[in-house]
Structures are given as structure tokens and as C-alpha cells.
Amino acid sequence: MSIRLNTPTMPPRAPHEPGHLRGEIGFVKAAHKDLYNATQRRNLQNATTTIREKRAHVVDEVDDWQALREAGSGIKRDVAARMPELLEQFEAAVTARGGHVHWARDSKEAGEIVTRLVQETGETNVVKIKSMATQEIALNEQLRDAGISARETDLAELIVQLGHDRPSHILVPAIHRNRAEIRDIFVAEMPSTDDSLSTEPAELAEASRLFLREQFMRAKCAISGANFGVAETGTVAIVESEGNGRMCLTLPETLISVMGIEKLLPSFQDLEVFLQLLPRSSTGERMNPYTSLWSGVTEHDGPQNFHIVLLDNGRTAVLSSEIGREALKCIRCSACLNVCPVYERAGGHAYGSTYPGPIGAILSPQLTGMDSASDPNASLPYASSLCGRCDEVCPVKIPITDVLLEMRHQKVKHHKPKIEGALLDSAGLLMGKPKLWNAVMRMVALGRVLGGFNGKITHLPSFLAGWTDVRDTAVPPKKSFRQWFDSEEAQELLAQARKEGLRKDK
């Protein structure tokens, strides 16, 4: 099969149907709502603090951790460089082992393929393994429209589904919920529970276990994602902590897996690197409790009908940017979310996309394209303080802050806001003319008349209000730095510093 990858120039055009990759409102407005949710902020702080402390402990145990990160980064860059070749190799290996490979250009096409495959089994109920790819393409909604009920089996995903909610974290979708909220959801939505259910984790786990066991025993068809796909052998890998995924992978007669094309690894030996990087970075474990590997179909062992849907949905467009394609190295560990001060306060829902946090801020705008300055995804590259914590913890060394800056550049380059653009152009003109710049800086003290309480400007007039409405703005100083530096006070301080420096040298 000949594969042609679509690689337009940045920014990429949005796929026909991007699924759950774009929210309805921009990050700033959405974040304001969740910033005032005290319960959610407390839940997020407790959970992310616990996870990142566990991660730090198990990472410190590994002497060659930085070498492992470099190896993982190199492997994923190799995949991006040889994507067509590796995809063909993977398809041939899966087919040779009795599996069926399908190609989907966008979320709509992927949903149609999966829907058709389920309908061919005659089933109207399926069980699902936690999967970011199926969330991305809004698969549950597409199946529902076709009269098919998809039951999530991952405990956190089940909580989100029963609560008629949306995931807010890559690893722990219900991270914004506490035990009391989960207990209330179970009582309201699970037929086998009542008001006697407590908030004890053991009781909540047992209630979900009994509920899901019935789903597993009835299921004839299962849907999964994939953590990795090995081009050399056609092997698909899923790592998990609960074992519910293993039930989906072994009991049903038909298994349909949806895999983003970037999830490929060239060789089986490459799993050695990623099965060390992923659990430590995601759950803070030395090894994940369940690792499931399968290649096609094995007679009398597991599903006898295996399909894998290879999903593009904007990924080949991302390959066109030398900097932006670094985001495709992501292995969905969520380490960047757990250290991000912005995510910890705003929560995952504020990002609008399936992918929240720092990785979502660089991945979603590339997968969908930034259609206009008002596109909700165009605000995501600004949902960061550029502190660099995410760069330090990423197991495959994605330079997230570099990509954020590139996304900001692309947004301004292709969709420069009229007023903001005019102001920035004027600032650029001033900065290029030192005498004019100095004259303007001498007038900066006039801005003090706009001062509010506690040395802050609380409201700027007209279109400038967009700045003060979302951030604290300091009152301008009485003098510019250059004016102050020429003053007697500054010269005295400078002379004193020089004297102290000479005494220390002696």
C-alpha cells in the first residue's frame, strides 16, 4: 500500500471533523469559571502533589534516567522521520498475523469505521478500555447516535461517564472529583447501590467491581486504544493499573483498537525503554501492574476478530513543523500536567480539548489548526507561564516551552488581532528608534493617574480593559529606569556597591 502523508505548512488546516479537540470558548474565559471552584482546586492540588512526589522518588532511583529520556526522544524522532515506511511495515505485520488494518483521516471517518465494525457483530453494547484516541474522536457519542451503548471500564472513566461529565486529566480523568462526589454518583447511577454505600475507597471499588463484572461477562465486543504499536512485529501494547483493560482484551470475541499513527515504535526492543519511562512518569510506579501485548489473532486465545484503526486526525499536518512535530513524541504520561501551576489552578476542563495541560496547549492547536484569532484553540499556547517545569519532567524530552513560543508566533503571524497587532507594531517602531523610545518612556509616569488600590491599575479604558480584566497591572513607576539611573540616588548606590566589591576582592 502506498501512503502519502499530508504535510502542509503551518498552521495546519483543521480536519473535517476534529471531534473533542476544540472547546466552545477560549481558555481565559473558561479558566475564570474553574478558578472559583474551591473544591476542584483542592482536589487537584492534593492529587497532583501526591503523584509528582511519587514520580520524583522512583525517578531518583534510576541512575541512567537522563539516558533513558534521551533514548526515548531519539526513538520517537526516528518514528516521525520514517512514518510512512513504519506504517506500511506495521500494517503488513498485523495482517500477516490475522488482524485487519483500517485507515482513518479524521475523527468522523474513524467513528464510521468503528461503528460499522460493531454493527457487523450484531451487538448494541460494547465495553471500552480507557483511551485518549477514542475520547479525541468523540467515539462514544458517534456510537450512541448509531444506537450503540459504549460502557467505560476504567474506574476513573466510569466515574466521568456515570457523572455525565468530561475527563479533566490524561491519566486520572476524574481527578477533579473527591470521594463524596464519587459516592453520590454511584448511588444515583449504579442499579446495585443504595444510600448505605459509604465513601470508603474499598467500598467504592467493590461497588464498581460488581457493576463492571456484569458488563464484562455479557460483552461480545470491546474497543480499546493503544499505548504503543510495534512496526517490526505488529504488536499492540496497553499498560494499565486496574486489570479492567485486561478483561476487555481477553473476554470479548471482537476487539477493535484505535491508535494514533504517532504511537508507533520501530522494533520490539524499543519497548524496553518506554516500559521504564511511562510508569515512572505517569503513576510514580516502577512498573505498571498490567502490561498486555498482542499481535493479530491467536486461535482459541482471546478475541478471534481483531481490527485496528490507524488515526491521522491532523497528525501528519503536525509533521510539517520542525518544532511543532516534537509534540508527537508524547506518550500520554501526564507528568507535565502534574507539575504545571496553571493546570493545577485552572483544571483540565478549561482547555476545552481532550488533551489538557501543557501538552494539550501545544498539541490541540496543531491538530485542529488555528482558524482565526477567536478560535478557542488559538488561546491555548498562552495558557502557560513558561516556567519550564514541563520540559524538565517530560520523559521523552519534548521542549514544550519552545513549541509554545512557536505556536504563539504562528498565531500572531497568521491571525494577528487588529488592535493588538497595531499596538505591537507601534511598539516595534518605538524600540527601533532609541531617541523616540526614551521620549516615550519619560512620559510613562502619566499612567499613574490610572492607579487603583494597592499600587495596581484595576481598570483600563476601552479595548485596553481586556488586559486589566484578567491580570493585575502594576502602576507605572515615577521615572523610567534610565531616568532613575541618571539620578544622584542611583549613582550613590552604584558607588557604594563598587566599594563593597573592592573590599570583598581584597
Calculate the mean pLDDT score and round it: 90
Over all CA atoms, what is the radius of gyration? 26 Å
Largest sheet: 6 strands, parallel
Anisotropy-based shape = elongated
Give helix % range. 40-55%
Number of DSSP strand runs: 12
Q: Report, as a whole number of angstroms, the end-to-end distance.
A: 76 Å
Strand content: 5-15%
What count of helical segments does DSSP give?
23
Main β-sheet, spatial strand arrangement: 1-10-7-4-2-3
Find the structural class using helix and strand composition: alpha/beta
- List the uncertain runs: 1-16
GO molecular function, one term: 4 iron, 4 sulfur cluster binding
Domain 4Fe-4S ferredoxin-type: 319-342
Protein name: L-lactate dehydrogenase complex protein LldF
Keywords: 4Fe-4S, Electron transport, Iron, Iron-sulfur, Metal-binding, Repeat, Transport
Short description:
The protein has 506 residues and is α/β, with parallel strands linked by helices.
General description of the model:
It comes from Corynebacterium spheniscorum. This protein has a domain at 442-505. The chain has a six-stranded parallel beta sheet, sandwiched between helices. Strands 8-5-6-9 form a four-stranded mixed beta sheet. A two-stranded antiparallel sheet has the order 11-12. By secondary structure, the protein is of the alpha/beta class. Mean pLDDT is 90; it is low at 1-16. Strand 5 (228-230) and strand 6 (235-240) form a beta hairpin. The longest helix is centred in the N-terminal third of the chain and has 23 residues, at 38-60. Helix 3 packs across helix 12, helix 9 (179-189) runs parallel beside helix 10 and helix 16 (357-368) packs parallel to helix 18 (400-414). It has helices at 27-35, 38-60, 65-81, 83-96, 107-121, 132-136, 139-145, 155-162, 179-189, 201-218, 244-250, 271-282, 315-318, 335-339, 341-346, 357-368, 389-393, 400-414, 418-431, 434-442, 465-468, 481-485, 488-505; strands at 100-104, 125-128, 149-152, 221-224, 228-230, 235-240, 254-260, 264-265, 290-295, 305-311, 456-457, 473-474.
